[in-house]
Amino acid sequence: MTGPAARDEVLARIRLALGGATPDGGAPGDPVPRGYRTRGELDTQGLLELLAERLRDYGCAVTRTVPGEVTAAVAEALGRRGARRVVVPSGLDLTGLPAGTEIVADDDLSPAALDALDGVITGAAVAIAETGTIILDGSPGQGRRALSLVPDYHVCVVRAEQVVALVPEALARLAPDRPLTWVSGPSATSDIELDRVQGVHGPRTLDVVLVGPVPDAAPLRRA
Predict the structure, then answer these.
(1) Residue 223 clears pLDDT 90, i.e. is over it
(2) What is the pTM of this model?
């Protein structure tokens, strides 16, 4: 079948899949079955532990901390990497970083300027414990996409209330018209020989500061 008839057939099938009427005016077909899980069952502590485990599997360093110690945790992460000049998007309050740390504001920095920095610190929109994925949507505290893609080192602050269990829960929190960046560990790829290379299309190093109740009640613990 070719020509207009083929086109009409394709469009009719698309309308049917979208829940529209059949070509003869009949009722649409059965809806697509959605038997997958849409909500997790873990409590907050379980979600944080699972997320930390997944992130470690990806090669991330995870620092567990409590709300009042976020700046100290970020400072510890920067110190481990020797990062002194970092870009911080507006809306992320990190006052009190150690002397010698230069905070660079993002005033439409060029890719070359971003690449010359030691790293970037951002917040997050949501994190998925099951997949170890952190999602940024460009809201205050996260900045434009280039900030989390160009610098070689990324420190991401994720708070307990932003962590969900499953992908459907994350999608329910996100606006589809936002510039979404999905991060599952440091940037990496594999060539045809399956040799893994990090840092090809984004930061080769990702440190996550996970803010919430810590199991042993210690104010700071590297997981």
Answers:
(1) no
(2) 0.79
